[in-house]
Amino acid sequence: MSGNVMAWRPVMAWRPVMAVAAVAAVAHLAVATRFGWHHDEFYYVVCGRHPMFGYVDQPPIAPLLARLGDAAGGLLGVRLLAIAAQLGCIVLAAALAARFGGRGAAQTLAAAAVAASPVFVAASMLFGTTVLDQVVWAAVFVLVTRALQESRPARWWAAAGTVAGVGLETKDTVAVLMLGIAVGLLCHRREVLRTPGPWIAAALALALAAPNLVWDALHGWPNLTMDRVLSRQQGGPLGSLLRFPELPLLLGGTALIGIWYFGLRWLAAPENREFRWLVPTAGVVVAVFIAGGGKVYYAAPLLVPLFAAGVTRMEAATRRRVVERGAGGSIADAGRSSASSTSTSSTTNARTSNISTGTDSNYSTNTSTGRGTGSKAEDSGGGNKCTGGSSSTVGSGSGSTDGDSSGDTGSKAEGSSGASRDYTGGNSSNIGGGSSRSGTDSSSANASASDTGAEHPTVAKALRREVRLPLAISFAVSLAVGLPILPPAAATALRGVNPELMQTYGWPRVVRQVADAAAALPADVPIFAGDFGEAGALAVLGPGDGLRRPVYSGHDSYTYWGPPAGSPETVLCVGKFRPDELRRFWGRVDEIAPITLPAGLTNGETAQRAAIYLCRQPRGSWAQLWPQLTHID
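Now predict its structure.
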């Protein structure tokens, strides 16, 4: 980017965007603790109680945050972290739409699309690495986009690298995002790679990730072992490929398909070269996850830029249709009058850019005040350039370029105040004042919004009419299948769609059953659990039921916290064991009771016939049995 250009700044439509976030927050908070803990959340809390620089299946930040959340407010404290991450995704989607040139309507709808998408709603039902990963990706998209638009981008690259580094300490999938961005820049913004910014970002990210990388190396790369196990569970690359359509067609929101489709077309359009780096980024991310046999939701954060781009394109197309239908006739006259009054202070040979289509072009500069806006032509090739006074462009409606076959148009030019380029949104002020829109943009905006920077009501209402039904349908479906809104019996019936709902149900009952079984045993009899969820439930909830026995497991990171000392003469085993499996380690195995739920309800424990066993007559010491009791899966 040329050193003598100044950066433009979009105006966020904070009021409607925060209204969307508030609705999402209320929906989540209303049922945040309705069922109870998820077995993964128990595991995060217990891992946090054993602080390390890494774990078998995750870096350290999620366990650390879970421990803090549990200490601050138990389950609600932990769930508040998940809800905060979801709200972050919602606001960041709006911010990205603003960076794409979207006004208030586009920003609000980008936020609403994320808030209504099942994959985001369901991920934030519980705290974990998934919801943290989503907000990290969204933040990186916004920061990299801003770095590419700023005249002095160093701090934004540093911020992007810092967030990516924190993300790498949360979930390893951020490395795939970084690879995708590198390829995207190489394909469409190669000149940026000749500047220090991206390299500073990469260095910061790797530096922050170093402690976890060192831990993984010293422990034999258990994270890679886990990746191979998960890949096999998905059916390898072929299984991942066959399941991938679930993300855009179902998990992203069936009713929202049109939005991300329009977004993909908008980003891929040749005139939107400024943002086209996101297309190969998405392609690389999807290809890597499929090749590695990754879970389908790993790539879900890609929907954030697709939603943001889609509503930006739809907003511009709606604005053009409103003008063409004559709804903005009087407004257009007012726009021409306003433009004429500012023509004496506008610069000749002013350059305008098509914002509604994201055209990568020069921005206008008012030489009378010495204030201007950032130019992209030096970096990425010329965009749509208009010669002649900028005010005449506003008055005549010329200088705009069709974004694609739908005719997304609307360029911007500076008004008499010479303010830096502002993207305006509803209910927000125009930074610097006096910014006006040229081409078809101006006809629907200038007369009623020249002072406030707000989208013209006719355009905003028309766009809302187009998308409110799909958004409402998607939000309703997301609440039903992604949050514990329905009764447990209905959630049981939905286990084939979302098994995680019932994985948050029934854990206090399990703990009470184990406490009752242990009551007659000597105090030194330990508990051995089949997986980290069962062990975590007994460790976190057990003391509240008077269960204060040591709890061990051979599952995942629990392998590092054992074996117990001495001999396992008598052990209370809890979990999805088969009796013949336990008899490999103890000569006498007696089932005390099965794990149960009320009639008609099923979760992962009851579906796999978990039970409580009293095991005696061990076939070796703990040290001898431990290697065969451990498993990573």
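The longest strand covers residues 586-594.
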